[in-house]
Write a structure and sequence with these properties.
With 366 residues, the protein is of the alpha+beta class. The chain has 13 helices and 13 strands. 37% of the residues lie in helices and 21% in strands. Strands 5-6-1-7-8 form a five-stranded mixed beta sheet. The protein has a five-stranded mixed beta sheet with strand order 11-10-12-9-13. Strand 10 and strand 11 form a beta hairpin. The longest helix has 21 residues. It comes from Pedobacter frigidisoli. This is DNA polymerase IV. Its cofactor is Mg(2+). InterPro entries: DNA/RNA_pol_sf, DNA_pol_Y-fam_lit_finger_sf, DNA_pol_Y-fam_little_finger, DNA_polymerase-Y, DNApol_IV, PolY_HhH_motif, Rev_trsase/Diguanyl_cyclase, UmuC.
């Protein structure tokens, strides 16, 4: 049986910006305000929705939906391409606000982060008051809204931040965690995707109380090592610390083809563009890697990857491109049509084994 120690009592805040990309666009361009806005591409493109404004969400539009589907749901929506430089600048300003209260900050993406305020710089003491102060500063200084979740661990704080969006603040204290976790739908649990949620529901596991009925051994039998995490988290035990310095494991980029194709010339042109993007990101962060990975997604959404490691580090666009072409040839896709291509460089440090899975892909600086 797992050691059922009491949870570590930290003061954790999870800040999640509200419809971030769309909100920045509506702030900067008054003509977008109050209207359904979709950031991601044009309705006739192969792009996907990066963010939809709350006006657009009323039509059922969500992130990762195809722009063509979004257009079907709301033909009057405004479609714009993302301006990542603008979003990155705003993210840096938000992070400066965070640093007024703590240096224990773990960014998850451009628009969300964990903060550990167990000991805050200003001696405020109350994590709820700190969260409200951060929200007020973001609204007053940046003319944007954020939602905050406050609790004793990362998992509960993250779920709490999503409970009263937009512009919400939700506190779930130690005495409330047990009942909160028991009522939580399993699809809200960290690490439970669509496939795992479907499996759980097939087992009549719909909420935390159902999950809690299973022993640790039963959960491990059904879900592997993740079962250990589910066993602990449903009991409110999450000892993961806020990591203020997250080591970059990989740098990559990917793009969707305008039309599914198996034409070498078209795929080579796209790989050249992606190689140049990856090289620029490596240069920006002064990195070079020993492992290159090519990602290929086919028209039926089947996904494969091919990798190669080198005795020396690489970071130049032409070298990345040449190696990506070789990996594409080795993949031998035949007559299968390709929908998306991506390139990732990893293994920046010699102490990382070649066969170690790489995580934390760096796309944009927080």
């Amino acid at each position: 049986m797992s050691n059922q120690a009491l949870p570590i009592l930290r003061k954790i805040i999870h800040i999640d910006m509200d419809a971030f990309y769309a909100s920045v666009e509506q702030r900067d361009f008054p003509e977008y305000r109050g209207k359904p806005l979709i950031v991601g591409g044009k309705p006739d493109s192969r792009g996907v929705v990066a963010t939809a404004s709350y006006e657009a969400r009323q039509y059922g539009i969500r992130s990762a939906m195809s722009c063509s589907k979004a257009y079907q749901l709301c033909p009057t929506a405004i479609f714009v391409y993302p301006r990542f430089d603008a979003y990155s600048a705003v993210s840096k300003a938000i992070r400066e606000i965070f640093h007024r209260y703590t240096d224990l900050i773990e960014p998850l993406s451009l628009d969300e982060a964990y903060l550990d305020v167990t000991e805050d710089k200003l001696g405020i003491g109350s994590a709820i008051d700190i969260a409200q102060s951060i929200k007020d500063a973001i609204k007053n200084e940046l003319n944007l809204t954020a939602s905050a979740g406050v609790s004793i661990n990362k998992f509960v704080a993250k779920v709490a931040s999503d409970m009263n969006k937009p512009d919400g603040l939700t506190f779930i204290g130690p005495s409330k965690i047990k009942s909160f976790m028991e009522k939580l739908p399993v699809e809200k649990f960290f690490g439970v995707g669509k496939v795992t949620a479907a499996k759980m529901k097939a087992m009549q596991i719909n909420i935390g109380a159902d999950l809690k009925k299973l022993t640790e051994a039963q959960l491990i039998s059904q879900f592997g090592k993740s079962g250990i995490f589910y066993y602990k988290i449903v009991r409110g035990i999450d000892d993961r610390a806020v990591q203020s310095h997250r080591e970059t494991k990989s740098v990559g980029a990917e793009d969707t083809l305008f039309e599914d194709t198996n034409e070498d010339s078209v795929m080579h042109d796209l790989l050249k563009q992606i190689s140049e993007t990856v090289a620029k990101r490596l240069e920006k962060h002064q990195l070079s890697g020993k492992t290159i990975t090519l990602k290929i997604k086919f028209e039926d959404f089947r996904l494969i990857t091919r990798s190669r490691s080198f005795p020396i580090q690489i970071n130049k666009a032409d070298v990345i491109y040449d190696e990506a072409i070789k990996l594409l040839e080795e993949a031998d896709i035949g007559f299968s049509k390709v929908r998306l291509l991506g390139i990732t460089l990893s293994r920046f440090y010699d102490d990382v084994p070649i066969d170690k899975p790489e995580t934390n892909q760096l796309e944009f600086e927080f």
